């Protein structure tokens, strides 16, 4: 969920609570104000009636239009003392003209005349219908709530979209960032201090990662270079020992075992040196290459080398897959993927290359279970190839792809191990 929508989902119930409380407070204030004004009128009305009554006017009631009017009656002293002097009430009065009840505000008060008699005066005036007011208030609050919700959504979207542009630019850069390519951070015009701190933290972190990566590459390159000379000396010395007539068969067998180990070390050293050169960007010659031609040129050599395993191989072409890259790296990419298809295959298995305009697929039979997709491209990862594999072929292939905006992915489908090279979107 996006941050703006998440904030809005938290804001909505709070907004509903605030508008609900506001509605209750507003309703209470309105009712109190109406009652205050009405009660002042009723008190003045009652005062005039009492004045007329004390002046000797003999009347018991008066009915105005609707539920407006007053009534007076004599009461006992006990009744007068048991009742509050002034009492305000809300009542429903039946209106004969309308044949229905309407709300009225009523004042009841008791006074004593000059003769010491007690009278109860009841005056009434029309007032608002509270139920209708409540319904209107609820309806208005709902409209207000949804209006505020929509307005909040629009304002939230506009403000967040504008204020979080530095964050979106940073995320976009992160998605395309590859360590070792020295992609500069996007320029930021962030105003918020949090974004500025985030940019500084990312810049510091990537700089440290780049330094560590460079140190690692330099270390691998130096080790590979330094190992070349002692490995060559060891091989020469073993060859000299093997040529001596005094060497027994047992010694020759031991020498052959050591030579095979040294051969593997030489291959590993060359692969590490080659990988280091790729990651250091030392291959800079660029030309358009048709990988279809490379596949058809290199594949026969592997067919001959692994003929004893009786592996069926075929090429399926639907279009040309062309890339602009260094020719040596293109050759290495195709070679490593073809070698992987043969080396990790089974007896009487099959291998195929499917070539399309936007992808190059290498598929082969082999292990009946899928490889670990998280580790298959890691350096020195091997799955049953033994001493014939350095564990660097797929790592080299992926490193080449990364340098030319290509993507190498693995999948196990329909009993085939599939490695696809496709253009990165």
Estimate the strand proportion.
15-25%
Our count of helices gives 9
* Overall pLDDT confidence: 78
Structural class: alpha+beta
Terminal CA distance reads 24 Å
Number of discrete domains:
3
Which descriptor suits the 3D outline? rod-shaped
- Percent of residues in helical segments? 40-55%
Task: Round the Cα radius of gyration to an integer and report it.
Answer: 47 Å
In short:
By secondary structure, the chain is of the alpha+beta class. The protein contains nine helices and twelve strands.
Task: Please tell me about this protein's structure.
Helix content is about 55%, strand content about 20%. It has helices at about 5-55, 75-80, 130-165, 165-175, 195-245, 250-280, 290-305, 325-345, 395-405, and strands at about 60-65, 70-75, 85-95, 100-110, 120-125, 285-290, 310-315, 320-325, 350-355, 360-365, 405-415, 415-425. Helix 5 (about 195-245) packs antiparallel against helix 6, helix 7 crosses helix 8 (about 325-345) and helix 8 (about 325-345) packs antiparallel against helix 9. The mean pLDDT is about 80. The protein has a five-stranded antiparallel beta sheet with strand order 1-2-5-4-3. A five-stranded mixed beta sheet has the order 7-9-10-12-11, with helices on one face. It has three domains: about 5-150, no CATH class; about 210-280; about 285-425, 2-Layer Sandwich (Heat Shock Protein 90). A hairpin with a 5-residue loop joins strand 4 (about 100-110) and strand 5. By secondary structure, the chain is of the alpha+beta class.
């Amino acid at each position: 969920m996006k941050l703006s929508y998440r904030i809005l989902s938290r804001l909505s119930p709070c907004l509903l609570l605030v508008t609900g409380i506001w509605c209750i407070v507003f309703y209470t204030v309105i009712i109190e104000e109406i009652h205050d004004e009405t009660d002042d009128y009723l008190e003045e009305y009652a005062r005039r009636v009492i004045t007329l009554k004390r002046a000797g006017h003999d009347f018991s009631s008066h009915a105005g239009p609707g539920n407006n009017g007053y009534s007076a009656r004599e009461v006992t002293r006990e009744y007068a003392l048991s009742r509050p002097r002034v009492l305000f009430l809300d009542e429903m009065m039946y209106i004969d003209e309308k044949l229905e009840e309407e709300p009225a505000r009523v004042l009841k008060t008791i006074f004593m005349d000059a003769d010491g008699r007690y009278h109860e005066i009841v005056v009434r005036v029309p007032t608002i219908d509270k139920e209708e007011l409540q319904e209107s208030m609820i309806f208005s609050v709902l409209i207000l709530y949804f209006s505020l919700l929509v307005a909040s959504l629009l304002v939230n979207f506009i403000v967040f979209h504008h204020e979080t542009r530095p964050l979106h630019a940073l995320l976009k850069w992160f998605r395309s960032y590859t360590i070792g390519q020295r992609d500069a951070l996007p320029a930021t015009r962030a105003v918020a201090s949090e974004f500025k701190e985030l940019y500084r933290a990312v810049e510091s972190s990537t700089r440290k990662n780049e330094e560590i990566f460079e140190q690692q590459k330099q270390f691998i390159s130096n080790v590979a270079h330094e190992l070349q000379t002692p490995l060559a000396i060891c091989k020469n010395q073993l060859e000299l020992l093997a040529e001596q007539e005094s060497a027994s068969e047992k010694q020759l067998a031991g020498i052959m075992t050591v030579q095979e180990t040294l051969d593997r070390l030489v291959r590993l050293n060359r692969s590490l040196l080659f990988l280091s050169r790729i990651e250091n960007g030392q291959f800079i010659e660029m030309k358009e290459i048709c990988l279809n031609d490379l596949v058809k040129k290199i594949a026969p050599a592997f067919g001959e080398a692994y003929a004893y395993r009786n592996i069926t191989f075929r090429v399926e072409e639907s279009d040309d897959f062309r890339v602009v890259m260094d020719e040596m790296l293109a050759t290495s990419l195709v070679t490593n993927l073809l070698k992987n298809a043969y080396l990790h295959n089974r007896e009487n298995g099959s291998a195929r290359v499917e070539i399309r305009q936007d992808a190059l697929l290498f598929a082969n039979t082999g292990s009946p279970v899928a490889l670990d997709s998280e580790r298959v491209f890691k350096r020195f990862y091997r799955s049953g190839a033994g001493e014939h594999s350095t564990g660097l072929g797929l790592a080299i292939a992926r490193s080449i792809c990364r340098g030319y905006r290509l993507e190498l992915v693995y999948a196990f489908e329909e009993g085939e191990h599939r490695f696809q090279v496709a253009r990165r979107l």
